[in-house]
Amino acid sequence: MTRFFSIVFGLSRLAAVIAACALLYMVGHIIYEIILRSFFATSTFVLDEFVGYAISICIIWSLGYVLEHGDLIRVGLVLDRLPERAQQLLTAASALMAGAMSAGLAWMFWIRVARAWSRGTVSSSVAAVPTWIPEGAIMVGLALFALAAVAHGLRHITGHPSPAPHAPLATPVE
User: Fold this and answer.
1) What is the tens place of the pLDDT at every residue in 66-90?
2) For a surface tag, which of 70, 85, 108, 157 has the fewest beta carbons within 10 Å of its beta carbon?
């Protein structure tokens, strides 16, 4: 199990790096667009579309990494009042449900990706991006998060320590 948790965390870390690259891409594209509009009176004409794709990647692909570091928002109103083992089991149940729902969403995106691929659907912008590409990226991110959530839940059930190095927070967030 320790190896499984480490592999899943490694995948989550890789996905978070890709999400960070998408963030850098967004900044670069926005700066490029500002230069084009300010100095050359032109545009790429795809800023909103491509930044939208990158935002999706930033959010979805980083979820597993954020979950394993304990930085996802959670409501401690009930959880903090429970004994330690009940907290672990409730956290595990929540993570397993999130994993199942994310896997279901990934499956629905698989259907969309297959349909877009078979129909040759493209975006309505001048770039005419095949829609299976951004939908496929979302599908992969959801599948990675589903795997990370299931691993997180199993880790809380079995009592395995997290493979993520925990950096102490300056101030705890409640």
Assistant:
1) 998 887 877 677 788 888 888 889 9
2) 85
